[in-house]
Automatic annotation (TrEMBL):
Pfam families, alphabetized: Oxidored_q2
Organism: Aeromicrobium phragmitis
Keyword Transferase carried by entry: no
Name of the protein described by the UniProt record: Cation:proton antiporter
GO CC annotations, alphabetized: plasma membrane
Length: 106
């Protein structure tokens, strides 16, 4: 239940930041959304009903499913690469939309 609430709070914060006007808030919203997606993928492994991945018993009913863990690791790498790309776009992109070409306010 706590994991579901955490995913909901992260998605709500991400939607709030993604609807903002500044590009840095959009990047931070994307980071929050990727964390929520990672937690959602991780929760599909059944963390409440299963134990360690490699415990004393190697019964498939009690060990953790390694596939969602592999998906989360892949999603972390992809989200990190996209975040770096978005931050580089934010740095090298246009100036603030309230300024015109000479740098003066409208």
């Amino acid at each position: 239940m706590t994991l579901a609430i955490t995913v909901g709070v992260l998605v709500a914060g991400a939607v709030y930041l993604l609807t903002a006007r500044t590009f840095l808030r959009v990047v931070l919203g994307f980071v929050l959304l990727s964390h929520a997606a990672n937690l959602l993928l991780f929760s599909t492994g059944g963390i409440a009903r299963r134990g360690e991945p490699l415990g004393s018993e190697l019964d498939a009913a009690v060990t953790a499913d390694p596939l969602p863990q592999a998906f989360v690791l892949t999603a972390i790498v992809i989200a990190f690469a996209i975040t770096i790309y978005l931050l580089s776009l934010a740095i090298s992109g246009r100036h603030d939309e309230d300024e015109d070409e000479e740098g003066e306010d409208r």
